[in-house]
Write a structure and sequence with these properties.
Length: 228
């Protein structure tokens, strides 16, 4: 396997680590680790945007990370009510508070990764980047980093014991993204030492960030994608 561990060699490929729902306290605790590896990630916020939450969102973005929305009640965007009613009920209340506080939002993660050919164009009216799952309800393309479209669906796969993740296999995916100069996307939720289920163990995150650095793979937030 080719290695890109020469620090003077150009960066190749990119990985977006994304974290969903809301784990403000632990996400803030993970900031020093992310900083240690010059890594940017993306956080997708669920629920009412309270002043406390907004303060955490501001701290995350001030540290260089991307912050997007994940709906008020975690309902499926392609549910029976239709996408317009869904947006009014579950997304607009979050967006309005962010806009009123001069906190621009460009990204949205579909709750339960549910989306379809109706939701994507509708949501692209409001957001540039939509995080979904890889092939959960609809397959998403793999993008070469040098030709990313202005608006795109980021198809992620889950990291955590629930997803049967193995760090060695995750590293192989990172290596593949670097070798093929493509964009790779993952999602998880909380970040904590020894975390299980749908959450990211802090130790895994560090191992992956260390590896990404060793192969000169960019670790970027969704808001960085237009400029890499
Ligand atoms: Zn979620």
């Amino acid at each position: 396997m080719k290695k890109f561990n020469d620090p003077t060699s150009p960066q190749r490929g990119a990985v977006c680590f994304t974290f969903d729902d809301y784990h403000g306290e632990n996400w803030l605790k993970a900031l020093p680790l992310l900083k240690k590896y010059d890594a940017h990630v993306t956080f997708f916020i669920v629920g009412e945007i309270t002043p406390e939450k907004l303060s955490v969102m501001k701290q995350l973005r001030a540290a260089g990370h991307s912050v997007g929305l994940h709906s008020l009640l975690h309902g499926d965007a392609n549910g029976p009510d239709g996408v317009e009613a869904y947006f009014e009920k579950q997304v607009k209340p979050q967006l309005d508070i962010c806009n009123a506080n001069n906190f621009p939002i460009r990204c949205f993660a579909y709750p339960n990764n549910r989306h379809d050919d109706v939701t994507d164009p509708f949501f692209f009216q409001y957001f540039d980047y939509l995080r979904a799952g890889v092939g959960k309800t609809k397959p998403v393309p793999v993008y070469p980093v040098d030709s990313l479209p202005e608006k795109l669906v980021l198809g992620g796969s889950g990291i955590g014991t629930y997803y049967n993740s193995e760090v060695s296999l995750l590293k192989e995916k990172l290596a593949h993204a670097a070798e093929t100069d493509t964009l790779l996307v993952f999602f998880s939720h909380d970040i904590a030492p020894g975390a299980e289920h749908i959450h990211m163990p802090l130790e895994w995150l560090e191992e992956l960030l260390q590896y990404a650095r060793s192969i000169n793979l960019r670790v970027v937030g969704a808001e960085d994608l237009a400029t890499i």
